[in-house]
Amino acid sequence: MALHFQDDPLLWAGWLYAWDGMTQGDIAKVMGVSRATVNGYLAEARSRGIVTLTMDAARLSELSIAQALKRHFGLEGCVVIPPGDGERPLTERLGIAGAKVLQQLIRPGDRVGVSWGRTVMAVARTMPPLRVPDVEVVQVTGGLTATFDFSPELCISRLAQALGARSINITAPLMVSSPAVRDVLMAEAMLADQMRLARGADRLLFGIGSTREGSLAFESHLITPQDLEAAHATHATAVLAGRLIDDRGRPIAGPLEGRTIGLTLEELSRIRSRIAVAGGSDKVQAILSTLRGRYATVLVTDAVTGAGILQAEGVPEAPGGLRAVKKANSQGGTAVKTKKLINDPANIIEEMLEGIVKAHPNHIRVAPGHPRAVVAVDGPREGKVGIVVGGGSGHEPTFLGFVGKGLADACAVGNVFASPPPDPIVECTKAVDGGAGVLYLFGNYAGDVMNFEMAAELAALEDHEVRIVTTTDDIASAPLAEKEKRRGVAGNFFVFKMAGAAADKMLSLDEVERVARKANAATFTVGVALSPCSLPQTRRPNFEIGEDEMEVGMGIHGEPGIKREPLKPADAVVDEIMERIFAELPKETKSVAVLVNSLGSTPPMELYVVNRRVHQRLERKGIAVHATWVGGYCTSLEMAGMSVTVTALDEELTELLDRPCDCAMFRAG
């Protein structure tokens, strides 16, 4: 059975029927059962509500994340558990899922190598009694002197008890005082024999440790902050069986490596079946590093973490987080694929970039050897603060359309709706640093924050001074008291423009950063979605909405809004948006800039109707409109809908807004 369906044949049959469009005969062949059995599975799935005209969206999201992780990282299997219900902690739920996976994989005569940690112990504790003949459980690391109840010795003892298996310990510490002591111990015949047995493991069960301060690696005294401050460990992001790896999954050689007793990463990688069980938002970077290094063949994680990994890696989550069950009168049903003028979806970003550069050769170029790093032809110059923007594709002209003189100097390009990885961000930094420092500007999304922060750390190692400002203009995405959690949407346009103008004036890095933060604080956006978009990889809508419905506050990736209600006339929609903006616009505001933005397929005719009402509402408040832009400036592929952005202006921001710029897809002055 496919691992991402855990032990539920109803889900598997339902997926193949409703999502892959297979006949019952085809499903029977794939599942290795009779057609009559498939018929029974589907009937029961319908009665349980798992399958209607489509798959149940809540289950579909977990399965789609698992499939995307499996496909992108070449995993043999992946299990993604749903978000928690608050009743059981994540570690326990991961343990239950990990135990089910191990039950499916273990065979008579297997030798199971085991690491240690909270999640590994959770697997052992939740493993039901399972008597498999001739199974052995062996430590793959030395032991620990810590008093917690999930040490290597306790983990293998508990798992061996559940499996009725023989346990084999490594009778030496995991970390010793020096390489010389390690060499002496490794020469002992008993330890050498234990290591030989560990190397012969058929399966490996391991957790993934983070190198964040306060993580288990520090709690167990396995590593110290001083260890990570050493030059060899500055890129350490994860701990696997006591070994450090960097953000690309490469082993970190250094003093710690020479003092560690246990299987090396190369030896661990030779074990044919390697089950990693880990989750939690604080583990995204560590798990991503592990997957990049190909240390796991099977991953067990949770939906939130899985989605974060995909976003950080720049992989679109297919099919994109459907949130509702198909209704007869809804738009965006999954049964019909959308039409797109594309070739191979895997090449769409590179082909788009090639076309854009050919269309705008006087404005942008691609950094040599780095096709996802787009640089302004005239922007970077000596003594000027460099402006690097970036984010997922599918929002054009945001982000790369705003690269040019007087605005952004470079853009790191991600996959559709996915953050760019650190590498192109670093290349952009190198290309635009004229000696005055670099400012990163991007929307406030978990994957973008993680990858831009990682890039800033890497750039600092090469003596580039970097500052970061995230945009948070989407007032519907979080309450005012939690403004730092808000998303960055169409308001990027004004923040990028003003920060770019400040840099063009040759202001210092401190001043450019101040201007960016000031512009962001003065910018407010609310959007309304009318119909969904579809990713090139799936060509299926990423959400469903009734033909007479609208959703207020929906994000530019299809994130849930604040309410769904019947579609209203344009003026009523604008009134609702403007009331939310007026509630946060500073009371002393006398002048504003306005952006009426199409989310993709809403035409200029409708946008100008909206703009008319926006101006009416502002005029009646006694607020002057200094400048207005109407059109597609921050899109969401072909999504229907629009957003209104209002930026409160003072003399400084007005001057910066009016300063000329010349970009590939935008010009002013």
From TrEMBL:
It comes from Aureimonas endophytica. SUPFAM superfamilies: DAK1/DegV-like, NagB/RpiA/CoA transferase-like. GO terms for molecular function: ATP binding; carbohydrate binding; glycerone kinase activity. Pfam families: Dak1, Sugar-bind. One of its GO terms (cellular component) is cytosol. InterPro entries: DhaK_dom, Dihydroxyacetone_Kinase, NagB/RpiA_transferase-like, Sugar-bd_dom_put, WH-like_DNA-bd_sf. Keywords: ATP-binding, Kinase, Nucleotide-binding, Transferase. One of its GO terms (biological process) is glycerol catabolic process. Residues 344-666 form the DhaK domain. This is Dihydroxyacetone kinase.
